[in-house]
Write a structure and sequence with these properties.
With about 60 residues, the protein is mainly alpha-helical. It has one domain. The chain contains 3 helices and no strands.
Length: about 60
């Protein structure tokens, strides 16, 4: 393949890889949201910070 062909492939990969990585991350988030153990950890962590949140976060209006 001529050097110009490699440059084209490189540019195409640079354009596509961020979107592929984003799609992968979104899929992982969806899996996590359906994982009962992960969600238990999230709830436990959120409840551990209720006091700190009440101190530092302004109430919603």
């Amino acid at each position: 393949m001529p050097l110009e062909g490699f440059a084209l492939v490189e540019e195409t990969l640079r354009q596509r890889l961020p979107s592929l990585a984003e799609e992968d991350e979104l899929a992982k988030m969806e899996q996590a949201a359906n994982d009962p153990l992960f969600m238990d950890d999230v709830r436990e962590t959120m409840s551990a910070f209720v006091g700190a949140d009440a101190q530092w976060w302004e109430p919603a209006q």
